[in-house]
Amino acid sequence: MRRIYSLLLAGLLAGSAAPARAQAPTPPAKADSLNIRRIYDEALLRGQSYDNLRYLCQRIGGRLAGSPQAALAVEWGKLTMEKANCFDKVYLQECQVPHWVRGAKERGQIIGNKGKSIAVAVCALGGSVATPGNKPLRAGVVEVKSLAEFKALPDAAVKGKFIFFNRPFDDRLVEPGQAYGGAGDQRRSGPAEAGRRGAVGALVRSLTAAHDNNPHTGATNYGDTPAKVPGAALSTMAADQLSQLLAADPKLEFELEMSCLLLPDEKSYNVVGEVRGAKYPEQVITVGGHLDSWDLAQGAHDDGTGVVQSIEALRLLKAAGLRPERTVRAVLFMNEENGTRGGTKYAELAQQNHETHLAAIESDGGGFTPRGFNVETTPAVFQKVAAWRPLLAPYLAGQLTAGHAGTDIEPLAATVKPVALFGYDCDSQRYFDLHHSALDTFEQVNKRELELGGASMASLIYLLSKYGL
Predict the structure, then answer these.
(1) Is the pLDDT of residue 14 over 60?
(2) Which of 106, 312, 325, 336 is catalytic?
């Protein structure tokens, strides 16, 4: 303590004897480092994402497009942006969205050739039709591992049967998102292909590596299929059980009961908060997540976290005393899960208004520990972005890789063509354990991980706004 006091006193004496000099300007890299530190300090000490997410999840809950909960979420989003006191204006963009209703809880059971039945965990795929008359549908089962294997079967083998698509995740892949993409065609197209071949329905193994009794929903697309048949997801435990029993008893049957319904389209909205750029207001940076979610749980990681992070990113900039030089919009997109109508409408309006979009950022991979960003752009622009790695790396957000940025910002690439698209990338190892299932609740989100993500997005916006592309 005495030594510290002596050093302080010597410094004060030296300062009083030296002539006053103008302080040298802070080098840009140093200034950027300090500003990003301010962003993270605000997020970690006074972040608001977690409290906002608590309200969205626990007071509103699952927000399937067209539902009353989705309408409440729009009101919440607008009010939350206004209360954040960081936007120059907050407004809504009208769009028509599909309105699919799950109906009563689905029932599924395996029935052996001696009549013994075993109830299994199932849920309807999003957009599926009901079983005929909303009554139990019973038929034999044909198991396949892929769409190609199914298409190779003769018509006589599949007609009048349930087609059981049982391709699991490829657990050799380090990134679970790659495994999800590899198995996803059976959910998206399985029911349509089954209907085309005269099958009575499709049973699809849930798209997850978790071995549990929680079925995972997700959209299925019938396209122009004239014969629409019901499609249901089996939990991974139920899928394994059905596969094992089917091997021992190929003549067993499955009974499925679903009462889902597709209603006329509903009017809904994107929610937009805008901060006008101080120097280049004609150049727009978009940051967003999707406000809708599936209906089995609260839509916490998918995509409540992305929604609250997008709002928080702009609040963090203001709290750190940083006014964006380019216009920044936080957009809460409606209907990503089963239609992408909100993202399409946002892009249409941007094109109609002849807007210039510099960049778009999406958070739709959960609220886990940051890694960095996936980037879609030219090699030359990527090199410019890569130069920011040292500024983001101390906060675990410096991993910049070429990759898919996000579904809601894809339509922008086809219309106003931003210079670059960015997808917030976080640790995804647990994401698909929860994704589209009853497990996706507020309690599964860690506060520090969530707030770090919002700060990562704010930091990228700061750099894009200051330096452009």
Answers:
(1) no
(2) 336
